[in-house]
Fold:
Amino acid sequence: MERHKHTLVLVRHGQSEDNERELFSGLRDPALTPRGVREASAAGATLRTLGYRFDDVFTSRLQRAQHTLALILDALGQSDLPVHADAALNERDYGALAGLNKTEARARFGVDQVRTWRKSYDAVPPGGESLAMTGARLWPFFESAIAPRVRSGGCVLVVAHGNSLRSLLMRLDCIEPRHIEDVNIGTAEILVYRSDAASRTFTRAAAIATTPRA
Structure:
């Protein structure tokens, strides 16, 4: 449809088993929970209701994102669309925090330290990545593989992760590092951007929280 040309849609994966257990995931590869499956299907139903048909779809190499994408495409009747899966879209590497319960991590490292590792721009958890490092590997892939398809008039869907998407939002929304701590993306939340072909910029058009059926 004409109104969805030059459009980028970002979706965070549905609730994973690690989300449910309050564990740091990072590059771990947990499956979706039943709630996460419902969230992903609800996101697909929302996009179908809004009239979306995608030209290209991208996701990470992790199953929680890939399963979310598959459920969205099924809801849209586009399950045969080729999927571009790339490690550049993987979640931030949480290093030594991966697999730890968040309460356990706070007890071990301190509340303030864990919050800094989780939310700040340049703090690096032991053996892991900062948000800045995540953006440094994601942004070149976005600019070379995803953005050109949107700028040429395509409607493109990207299903990824909370922190990999936060690093992308810093560029798209021009968020300063000191403000990124306040940015959160819910499971299966939908973010819509329009591209201006002349200025090559992206503008936020909508943010849609997903409410799954019981």
About this structure: The first strand starts at residue 7 and ends at 12. The mean pLDDT is 96.
